[in-house]
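re: that chain from earlier
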Amino acid sequence: MKNKPEKLKKTLSGMKSVLIAYSGGVDSTFLVKAAYDVLGGKAVAITAVSELYPEEDLKRAVRDAKKIGIKHIIIKTKEMKNRNFTDNSPSRCYFCKKELFEVLSVEAAKRKLNYVLLGATGDDEKDYRPGMKAAEEYGVRSPLKEAGLFKKDIRLLSKKMKLSTAGLPASPCLASRFPYGHRITGKDIKKVAAAEKYLRGLGLVEFRVRHYDSTARIEVHGKDRNLILKNSGKIVNYLKKTGYTYVSLDLEGFRSGSMNEVLNRVK
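^ sequence. v structure.
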């Protein structure tokens, strides 16, 4: 890995000025830090806010951007008004990212910044990522991936940089909790958000609440099953108050991108 950070620095230096799509997660925070270290005031971070992202993510992004010292812009996006997105086809992320990158491209041009950057890594080649097609269409660069960096590399480098996100679990948007073909509504997004916030309050760190109409399917790591079972009565009562009729525990456990398993079966 020793040559990868240098390759990243060289790539960023050659870009001269950048606008970074910044979610506050592991990868984008590392990219923001790396870009600011190389480009200083010629690097700007921008965070898109909508009901699809937990409030905690925005708070962390604001806090960490301030620590790093980078200029940080916050914009509101309107994915939930886009029928192509809410219909929730397997191409859902393409339509979301297409709208986002269009907005970011305008922002970059307005601020005379040369490139829009995304915190994609080598790991993103391993899963279904339709949003990457939108990135290609808008000329969005992924310098972490270009440098050959993977998630494990970024966590290690983030730890060395003493970034608070080094051990942070992935936090994809709440639309990823819905099976393809199930229309996404604001009401259902709020149900999922409330359910996950409650479980987080019990001490869970990496998990998902998958939404199936009246059923909530909880995915946790094996080590966390006892916590779920110990608090099962409270969990069921709370989730029923949010609108669920049934609450289930997935015996296969937590796995990132589990909603894409149906696509793999179709193949």
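The chain has a mean pLDDT of 93.
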